[in-house]
Design brief:
Layout: H1 11-15, E1 23-24, H2 25-28, H3 30-33, E2 65-71, H4 76-89, E3 93-99, H5 102-110, E4 116-119, H6 125-129, E5 136-151, E6 160-161, H7 163-171, H8 180-185, E7 197-201, H9 206-218, H10 220-223, E8 238-240, H11 242-252, E9 256-261, H12 262-267, E10 271-272, E11 274-276, E12 282-283, H13 287-295, E13 319-327, H14 333-346, H15 364-374
Length: 390
């Protein structure tokens, strides 16, 4: 499986990048794993280390089989490495995942053509009403941040932006890098007069939902205009598909600014802005600052899930969870048991993979929420619980 790019600055992230079509992650990445490099920046602190799992399985017992999933590009790097690690313990289980964006993942899940979907925003009641496989369960699987990354020659990382200025850039009110609003926040920084080239996600995207949810929270002009959604009508800019597409555009095009899942920004050595949070502090996205934001709202549900712009001096305000989408009533007990075992491992022991890829390990209470949700899954008789935790 040859996916090493010619551009060395994008090598690490591209190793974990999948094409739009489904790829056998668990088996096909053996060659990739032998050459993968470690993250270049941001080490997990003790505060972000995944807690011990009281039900951790040393001898995994999931039956052999193949699972298919589709959706979030935000999740794809974590899924790639985690499902490969799971396969090393369960050689009979293969997980095929298509990184097509949250919107596409929801559509395939609704049509019941995949075993699970993945989205950076839970399905809405309208989304759920279109699901053809019965009662929907939504399982938190990942926690991360959305960086505001930019490519401005000569301007180092840490450019400061307020919520108002950030919203004004994406509304098209702030058009050049040397605009007085940006200059006043960054005295001593030599800003060019070049126009700001905004880039956004062209596909239905949970990352877009998190970012536009943040903008709607901090800007009445944004909330009454483009608003919050997986897709919105962008006032300015150009669209690119997937986190990979936006990241690639920023990397190759000077004077650009866009929103990119944090792991892509860290592992590709992007420059990214410090965002003023609700406490008035300018905070860079990192594992610890995303964890600090999430800690301010420990009790989330698939209905009350937003954690953007939380209080706390250390909180990075553009953060969010990602969710696996599954049906409560599984078509077969064998495939259903494989599915819940894989997802239970992913949200517990598998969180050891998170920090190495610049995701925040799920907090202990969110791991408990994931397991409580998976314990609701049954076989086709509607009675037999499929998850075993001992």
């Amino acid at each position: 499986m040859s996916i090493a790019p010619s551009d060395s600055k994008l090598v690490h992230r591209a190793r974990w990048t999948l094409p739009v079509t489904a790829v056998a992650l668990a088996i096909g990445l053996a060659a990739c794993s032998s050459t993968s490099s470690s993250p270049t920046t941001t080490k997990a602190t003790s505060a972000t280390t995944a807690p011990a799992d009281p039900y951790a399985q040393t001898d995994l017992h999931a039956p052999a089989g193949t699972l298919t999933g589709a959706g979030s590009t935000f999740d794809q790097p974590l899924f790639t490495k985690a499902f490969y690690a799971y396969n090393q313990k369960n050689s009979g289980v293969t997980v095929n995942y298509a990184s097509i964006g949250s919107g596409g993942g929801i559509q395939q899940f609704q049509a019941n053509t995949v075993n699970f979907g993945a989205s950076d925003v839970p399905m809405s009641p309208l989304d759920i009403s279109k699901a053809t496989g019965g009662q929907v369960l939504q399982v938190p699987v990942a926690l991360g941040g959305v960086s505001i990354s930019y490519n401005v020659p000569g301007v180092a990382t840490g450019l400061k932006l307020t919520p108002k200025v950030l919203a004004d850039i994406f509304l098209g009110n702030v058009k050049t890098w040397d605009n007085s609003e940006i200059k006043s926040l960054n005295p001593g920084v030599k800003l060019p007069s070049n126009p700001i080239q905004v880039v956004y996600r062209s596909d239905g995207s949970g990352t877009t939902y998190i970012f536009t949810n943040y903008l709607s929270t901090v800007s009445t002009a944004w909330s009454s205009g483009p608003g919050t959604g997986k897709s919105v009508s962008w006032p300015v800019g150009v669209g690119q598909k997937g986190n990979e597409g936006v990241a690639g555009f920023i990397h190759t095009t000077p004077y650009t600014l866009g929103y990119v899942e944090l792991a892509y920004a860290i592992q590709n050595n992007f420059t990214y802005a410090k965002i003023q949070n609700a406490a008035g502090q300018y905070v860079s996205p990192s594992l610890s600052s995303v964890a600090a934001d999430a800690a301010q709202k420990p009790n989330i549900t698939s209905v009350d899930f937003s954690i953007v712009n939380q209080t706390g001096a250390a909180s990075y305000p553009i953060s969010g969870y990602s969710w696996a989408l599954i049906y409560q009533l599984q078509k077969t007990a064998t495939t259903g048991q494989t599915l819940v075992d894989v997802l239970d491992w992913l949200t517990h022991a598998g969180q050891s993979q998170a920090a190495s890829l610049d995701y925040v390990p799920l907090p202990a209470n969110i791991q408990q929420l994931a397991r409580a949700t998976l314990l609701q899954v049954t076989g086709p008789d509607g009675k037999t619980k499929l998850l075993t935790t001992s």
